Amino acid sequence: MTQDETGLQIVVVEDETLIMMDLELMIEAEGHRMVADASSVRTLCAIDTDLHVDLAFVDLQLAEKSCGLDAADYIRATWPEALIVFVTANPRLLLPEIERGDGVVPKPFSSGVIEAVLAFLHGGIRTPPPVLAAPNGFFMRSDLATRLGCESPAARAQT
Fold this sequence. Notes:
Elements: H1 3-6, E1 9-13, H2 17-29, E2 33-38, H3 41-45, E3 55-58, H4 68-78, E4 83-88, E5 103-106, H5 111-126, E6 139-140, H6 142-148, H7 153-158
Parallel strand pairs: 1-2, 1-3, 3-4, 4-5
Antiparallel strand pairs: 5-6
Helix pairs in contact: 2-5
């Protein structure tokens, strides 16, 4: 099988060029493919809607004074099966709006966190349930855990 058949197809919505480049390197190093990138909602809307997208990493504060929550809404409407992971330095801003995405990775993040999130989500998307536990530094909605066929970190903490 080729990388495209097994790896995740990922869109990155991030206005900081260096962070986008770092994410692309991490994504490709783990055998996945960044199929598109955008720095704002406007540039996201210009991406070919015929692309297959498994996962989107989305920053909250984007270029052109646009918002990652609006980007998430567009992604959900355009690629309804894609998982949305917010990557943001402002995770508390998401609390009332977390249902618009599936998980959060707070900035600053390490390559190890992104690699672990990719491995976990790859397992959950391609061959559920994921073999790996949800990584530290990744906060997911409990319904994502159900969707992937695994136990949420909150449920594990209660047992």
